[in-house]
Amino acid sequence: MAAFEPLVEAMKKTGTAELIDALMHIMFGDTWIAQETPEAKHWRAHMRALTNSIGNSAHQVIHRPADSTRARWSFNSSATISGCGSAFRLCP
Length: 92
Hints:
This protein has about 90 residues and is mainly alpha-helical.
């Protein structure tokens, strides 16, 4: 996760506006972004408006202990993300 440290430090200083292209790529990927859906536009605007306080949250994400990231996820045949039988639910 050290590769994300410069991005996190920049977010702590300036917020996300200047970093929005990199953040959109990390979070959503080029294919989804290229579709220019209303959802993509919504998330771009939302993420672009985040202040520098988001840097503290991002710092915690990249520095959390490795064992806290364990989760069991499965993909069912209808291509929805599910875990423990419910969509978007983490398993204990």
